[in-house]
Structures are given as structure tokens and as C-alpha cells.
């Protein structure tokens, strides 16, 4: 059986959520963060050379990186009907948008959040150099683009919930427990509604109940 090694309140929630959405059986092993450092414990770091979540085991296969893990599960454990239910076909009018938003999250938004957080810590919030300003503002450009995209849309890449939504939720919601940038989403009402809409999905609620029961639902609106 597929084994998901879940680090508490981390990007590995994506993998649990995917399996809950599609009804794919899995065994869940939960690892709590170090209470002093808030980092992964030694036993989790020992799972993979790069020491990051998520990590899965599937027989003799051990795999990390959430995008790779999700693609692997879709191709190895999901039926054609299950795959079609959460992806967009190449013949669909929304296919290009689906590809863009699927890759935008980790290639652009997630990285911008990490970079923004690092810059803010190093400068104490005093960003005077023009290059640093541009780096810090890139995250806000992402939110502005997302806000416009979600106007009159329930989902980011078409008319149904897809992998693009599942990937996007983590940096704009759960990740804000660690990097609350921007501090408030009040200027992004469409994004706030989107977060609430995804967080209200039954499969996501089950994910939280099973993987992070101590925190309850955290939307960080």
C-alpha cells in the first residue's frame, strides 16, 4: 500500500488531500515538528537526502517533491476516470490555463514567498535597495494576478476543481502559518473566498482531521 510520510502542517498535506479527493487507499505516518525549531524532526529528515516533505513509499519506491509525488500517484494509482476528474485534457479549452496555474504555484508564487520572507528577515522590513524592492513586490504581483483571475471564477483553471487548485492552496493558506505575507488578505477578496471554498471541501476537511487534527482548519484569511 502507498505510504505517505506526513510532516505536520506542511506541503505534504497536498498528497493526503489528493488521495482523499480520489479515494486512493494509503497508510499515513505522521511526524511532528520540533517544538523549539519548528523544523522537521531527525527521523523525518532521514527519510530522504534532501530532508524535505513530502515523502512517499510505494513498495521499493521512495519519492519526494510534491509535484513529482502527485504525478506519480495519478499515473500509478489513479484510474483513467479518477485522473480525468481532477486534471484538464489537452483537448480542453482550459488546457493552457491549467498548465500555467499548475506550474505557477511552485515555480513562481511559492518561491516568491520564501524569498520575500528571507528579505524581510535580513532587512528588518527596511527595504531600500531597488533590487530588493522588486524582489519583495513580486509576491504581491502574484496575488494581484490571482485576484483578477478569480473574479467570477470558482476555480483557477477552468470550471472544476483540479490539481492546479490543490497545489495553489498550500502557499496562499497553510503556508501562511509560517510566512504571513501579506499580513492580511483583505485587499484580495476573491482570493479569500477561494481559500474558504477550497477549505470547505469534504476531502480537505478529512485531510486536516487525519493529518493535522491538532490544528483544525487553518485558512489564514
UniProtKB/TrEMBL annotation:
InterPro entries noted in UniProt: Glutathione-S-Trfase_C-like, Glutathione-S-Trfase_C_sf, Glutathione_S-Trfase, Glutathione_S-Trfase_N, GST_C, Thioredoxin-like_sf
Domain GST N-terminal: residue ranges: 1-81
Entry superkingdom: Eukaryota
E.C. designation(s): 2.5.1.18
SUPFAM superfamilies: GST C-terminal domain-like, Thioredoxin-like
Catalysed reactions, semicolon-separated: RX + glutathione = an S-substituted glutathione + a halide anion + H(+)
Transferase in keyword set: yes
Family: Belongs to the GST superfamily.
Name recorded for this polypeptide: glutathione transferase
Organism: Meira miltonrushii
